Amino acid sequence: VCGIENILITSGSQQALDLIGKVMVNPGDRILVEEPTYVGALQAWRPYEPAYIPVPVDNAGMRTDLLESVLRETHPKLIYALPNFQNPSGVTLSNKRRVELIDLAERYGVPIIEDDPYGQLRYEGDHECSLFALDAMKSKTSGSVLYLSTFSKTLCPGLRVGWVVGPESVIRQMVQAKQGMDLHTSTFVQMLAYETARGDFLDQHIQQLRRAYAVQRDFMLALMADHFPPGIKWTRPAGGLFIWVTLPRDMNSTTLLKKALEHRVAFVPGNEFYPCGGGENTFRLNFSYPSMEDIEMGIRRLAAVLTQEMQLIAQT
Ligand SMILES: Cc1ncc(COP(=O)(O)O)c(C=O)c1O
Questions:
Q1: Residues 164-182: pLDDT tens digits?
Q2: Considering only CA atoms, which residue is closest to atom 10 of ligand 1?
Q3: How far apart are the CA of 217 and the centre of ligand 1, in A?
């Protein structure tokens, strides 16, 4: 059961991540993260000087088959999980792995931070149960997940309204830390969010986003399949905003970006999302922001850059 004492309204999820750093992370603490993971969380926690323990993701999300040995060997303070349409890779944690993650976190006594800004933007398949709900269903352990979400992806990122749900003791500490930062999230923007969410506008708006983004995702994926040269792999996200591209091992997406920019097309190099280095041959594409025309032009240009680059590599 979740009462008002279990909820804190924050200035976006980003502030919640920083508050977690403030109240839970001390220098040298280990945080187990997915690899790749949300770069904004790494940035938020960097001032608190944690050490990151990466666990790779595949098409079914965090590799829970590797988790137990990592937990046993490293004893992390926290697990940071992005179960739905992960930023940056777009992959979703399968239900089986959600249960495994909750079980293992319980066994090793490690709290989970569940960061879920994209959960409502699902374009196919069934909604997966949150880690928070799975944990709450296990009466013994209930209280070891902090759930974060936000209006940024469904309503407006500029509003800066998000929320954290968790055990009262942790929420109380976060409230105190937040009071020192900004006293409270602007009541004016909270009223705007409330008025928008209490009728059916927001639900209808989310339906509309789902329809529009699904079309954009499918269009981008189809263009990639038609135009990208062989040897390149990418994810097929069931929701969210991102497609994750993996190039052959000898290619570097940061170098490639310079060439892509000369052709007036951009992407986010993957290396930034790897807390301990790696991922130089990966990059993130976004399909929700560009128009259909820009998606077509962008993918065609990118495909041309990739083809050229791969031909050059083949010649050397
Ligand atoms: C995984 C994840 N967490 C948190 C955030 C921050 O969202 P907000 O705008 O609510 O601060 C983002 C934004 O991109 C995100 O992708």
A1: 999 999 999 999 999 999 9
A2: 12
A3: 20
* pTM for the predicted model, two decimal places: 0.97
34 touches ligand 1 (CB under 6 Å): no
| Residue from 9, 11, 13 to probe ligand 1 pocket by mutation (most atoms less than 8 Å from CB) | 13
For residue 139, name the pLDDT band (cuts at 50, 70, 90): low
237 Cβ inside 6 Å of ligand 1:
no
Task: State the pLDDT confidence band at 143, using cuts at 50, 70 and 90.
Answer: confident
- Burial of 188-208, coded b for 16+ CB within 10 Å and e otherwise, reads ebeebbeebbeeeebeeebee
Beta 78-81 vs 112-115: how paired, if at all?
A: parallel
Whose CA is closest to atom 16 on ligand 1? Answer: 87
